[in-house]
Amino acid sequence: MRHQRSNLPFAALVLASTMAFGLAGHFAAEAVIRHQQVHQLNELTEIVLRRSEFAVDFAAASLDELAKRDLASCAPAALQAIRLHVYQRSAIKDVRLVNPDGSVICSAYSETLEFDKGWADRRDMLPSHDRKLSLFRVEQFGGDALGVLGDVNRSSALVAIVGLNAGLFDLMPAELRAHSDVILALSNGEKLGEFRLDAGKPLQGPISFDKHSTRFPLHATIRLEHAVLSSWNSEAYWPALAVALGLGALFGILLARSRRMEGPVADLDRGLAAGEFKPYYQPIFDLRSGQITGCEVLARWVRRDGSVVPPMNFIPLAESSGRIQVMTWQILKSALADLHGVLRADKTFKMSVNVVPKHLLSAGFVETLRRTVLAARISARQIVVEVTERDELDDLAHAAAVVAELRDHGFRVAIDDVGVGHSGLSRLKGLGANTIKIDKFFVDTITVDASTTTIVEMLVALARDFRMTVVAEGIETEEQRHALIASGVEEGQGYLVAAPLPFAKFSELVDSRRRSASAAPAGDVLVA
Question: Would you indicate the residue range of the signal peptide (predicted)?
Answer without folding.
Answer: 1-22
